[in-house]
Predict the structure.
Amino acid sequence: MSFDVSRVRAAYPALSDGYAYLDGAAGTQVPSAVIEAIADAYRAGIGNAGGAFPASRRSDVILAECRRAVADLTGAVPEGVILGPNMTTLTYRLAETLSRQWEPGDEVVVSRLDHDANVRPWVQAAARRGAVVRWAEVDISTAELPSGQYAGLLSERTRLVAVTAASNIVGTRPDVAAIAAAAHAVGALCYVDGVHATPHVPVDVGALGADFYATSAYKWSGPHIGTVVADPGLLERLSPDKLVPAPGGVPGRFERGTPGFADLAGVAAAVEHLASLDPSATGSRRERVQASMAAVEQYETELFARLLGGLSAMGHVTLYGKAARRAPTAFFTVAGYSPREVAERLAARKVNVWNGDNYAWELTGAFGLRDSGGAVRAGLVHYNDESEVDWLLAAVAELAPDGVR
């Protein structure tokens, strides 16, 4: 298909404010369908789940539909969809639960490529249990995470391998399937951070080999809800802390407190929105999501090439990362300016970008950027277009010192 970005942009009210939203790596805007789904849930009246009255039954339906939608997005099953406030909270919850099975001397493997939310919960859990932390290192010249190194990192004592499906600052997409296969070969579990990958590519947790796959709806045009998907049989073997009267089955026993039911309605609407991005796609919602996200990946790849080409041609810009497979995220510095100053200059020209370490604590440290303010991050999503990329490039070009272009 020819990706109709004008049609897509028309679905997002916020995009009419005159700004170029190139901050999608930190969170996306939401389409009207999501806004209306949340509002409609409140208009209809909702109650807590499990009650005998209609408002409660409406919440039960919303919850069930949200699980089905997330399953369609990721290739999981609804019975394995854990919902919560955000990925970080859920990952800490899983780290607390899984680490109860670890013994002193057991091993956990984390990577320098990851967002800290898929590093620190495991490092801290390992410290509590006397487990050993092993690090997968990044090739700084390319920002690749070589999968071959895992053979030397894993042993019969490895209990868990945590790895990202895409770096949230440089976009690197490591070979998760190979890493997961290596983990499984020694009997370890693989916990995959899919937060930055899910908005950009079709997701199939089975093909990835992920035992746990975490993602956040606000990164793919939904509200601030996090989710972790897993095989229900695996979840049955785990016993998280919970209130005595709280649900005892899975996935409910992993979900602490009453959820925001209206926001869950927004999650389902966001998945339906993603499924509609290729209007020619047919079949089940899962099939339409896969087709639409394949179209998104192709469109964003072409748009990202325009962004990278423009930045790399500027002598006053230093780009970080050049992995073979990337999500459309650029991380760069501008000579003569701190990353915050660049972000402020661009904001004055109505271009939204992020600056700092963006919670990629280990990777920005490896790049030598963390203590000097990190770098500037421009992240594309499916509603960005060529005019916004050119807008950013023109604004960055204006920051060149005299005689440098």
